[in-house]
Amino acid sequence: MFGAVALKALEVYAIATPWLHQDTTPIALYGAYADEPSSPGAPRPAYGHSKDGRGDLQQVLLSLGVSGDGGLPLRLGMRDGNTSDSVETPVAIEECLALGLEGVHGIVADSKAYSRRTVGLCLEKGLGLVTLVPRTCAVRQELEAWGQQQPALPLLVAKPGRTKDEACRQWHGQSVIRSVEVEYSDGRVTQEALRFLVVHSSQLAQQQTQAYTAAQEKEAEAVTAHVKQVQARWFACEADAEAAIAEYEGRGPGRRGRRPRPWRYHAVRYHSMAETRRTRRARRGRPAKMDPPPIESGYRLVVEVEPLAQAEEDHGWTVLATTVDAAVCADADILQAYQDQNTTVEPGFRWIKNPAAIAPVWLEKPERIAALAMLTVLGLLVYSVLQRQVRLYLRMHDQQIPGNKGLTATPTAAVVLALFTQVALVQLWIDEQEVAQFSGVHPYHLLVCDALGLDASWYAVPSGQKNDRDIQTP
After folding, report:
1. How far apart are the first and last CA of the chain?
2. What string of DSSP letters covers 140-186?
3. In Å, how far are 157, 226, 243, 276 from 303, measured between CA atoms?
4. Which helix (H) or strand (E) holds 433?
5. Mind listing the pLDDT tens digit of every residue in the chain (474 residues)?
6. Which of 85, 81, 109, 77 is nearest to 6 (CA)?
7. Among residues 59, 71, 62, which one has the least CA distance to residue 25?
8. DSSP β-bridge partners for residue 272
9. Alpha-carbon span 420 to 262, nearest angstrom
10. What domains are defined for the chain?
11. Is the dihedral of CA 446, 448, 453, 458 positive or negative?
12. Are strands 58-67 and 19-29 parallel, antiparallel or unpaired?
């Protein structure tokens, strides 16, 4: 009851997609829950990493798989609130295989899916996998360095800029084979050849450059305040000054392991300097005119700050791992499959959070938790089907409807529903005759009805008018 559920949207609509896009999101819950649920296999609310910023609430994890064609939900599962994404992905793959979703040949997931167990499972089952390699992996660092040394990488995808002033967006990349560790179901850990796609994005490079500059400017304010505080300190001897420097640099007594790095975008260096300063007189009264002012010798710290310049060639690099052979799926198709995450599962989660978000509630029984998740995903299914069918119809018939910024052939379901808010049925009685009139109906409303297979006669004025009124008085 609480395991995976296939929504079987493939049997209702002709979905032409070889990929299933997988991701997870938490559902926050109020109240206290028992450590162990009474129902076997029920999701256990628990504290965990909250993607919503609600670490004060317990949660359960919603695992969702959607189609690459329109983002239609195909599979969902409920997990304990402290389940890690890296643990959930192999389970989701096993459930997809057990549910037998025909036409789905591979799974696309974020960087949490890159692990020895997930890669080994996909190789063992012959299932395609496309995932992002985390920055912390040595193989990604090695491949990014390899990509920077190449004179030119083949052009994979080119798209026009989103604005007139924005340059054309380009993605260059190439597949390489590297040997990595994988873990099979029987526990064996072996070295296997895996395909990696090294990609450089001009758009990502620009975004990372702007983000680095903004972060450096923000950190500069904190560095300025730190320098002012450090240079205001006074030390009686050089040993105290050197001890303070060691503390600032993370070399203080008792420290072990890697040094802390408080400043990521600036190089901060300290050194001591002998100085003198005026101090208070030891005795009361007015000093003699010829008495020298009291002087105290000591040390201050001098701080040198240098902004760290990051090389532009370090920006814009992405490394994807896949179990799909190059003869089956070209580099451009692998890149497109991963980029579709932003138009399939991610918009679905945004819709679940807002506007379909339900305030955290106390659901006493695990059955109610599962029911809430099912109703939420069913709502997402209706929303996604509506959006997919309208877009498909408009593209096939070369039509457009009003959007948020002029005419569009790719409206969201929210835009489609908003178009009908102005439609109203006005009923008037003139003498003994009823007059019905629709207000706000435009041709694009009838176009949407045709796209969804709805009867457009709903918005037509009745041919016959009533000649009398059936009025009942109290």
Report:
1. 52
2. HHHHHHHHHHSS---EEEEE--SSSSSPPEEEEEEEEEEEEEEE-TT
3. 48, 9, 15, 18
4. strand 433-439
5. 455 555 544 444 445 567 889 988 888 888 777 666 666 667 888 888 877 777 788 888 888 888 888 888 888 888 888 888 788 888 888 888 777 766 677 899 988 889 999 999 999 988 899 999 999 999 999 999 999 999 889 999 998 887 777 888 899 999 999 999 999 988 899 999 999 999 999 989 988 889 999 999 999 999 999 999 999 999 999 999 999 998 888 887 766 667 777 889 999 999 999 998 888 777 777 777 777 788 889 999 999 999 998 777 788 999 999 999 998 889 999 999 999 998 888 888 888 877 666 667 777 777 788 888 888 888 888 899 999 999 999 999 999 999 888 899 999 888 999 998 888 888 788 877 877 777 888 889 889 999 988 888 777 765 544 444 443 333
6. 77
7. 62
8. 301
9. 54
10. 5-194+324-377 (3.90.350), 209-307 (no CATH)
11. negative
12. antiparallel
Residue recorded with tokens 């005795």: 283
Contact predicate 407/421, CB 8 Å: no
Sign of CA dihedral 379, 383, 389, 390: positive
Structure tokens at 390: 């309208």
The amino acid at residue 115 is S
User: Could you give the count of Cα atoms lying within 13 Å of 474 in the half-sphere of its Cβ?
Assistant: 0
With CA atoms as reference, report the closest residue to 110 among 309, 342, 294. Answer: 342
Question: Residue 282: how many CB atoms within 10 A of its CB?
Answer: 6
Give the pTM: 0.76
Q: In sequence order, which residues have a C-beta less than 8 Å from that of residue 111 and are 6 or more positions away?
A: 131, 132, 133, 134
- Residue 262, burial from CB neighbour count under 10 angstroms (0-12, 13-18, 19+): middle
SS3 340: helix
Closest by Cα among 403, 382, 400 to 391: 400
CB environment 208-235: b (16+ within 10 A), e (fewer): beeebeeebeebeeebeebbeebeeeeb
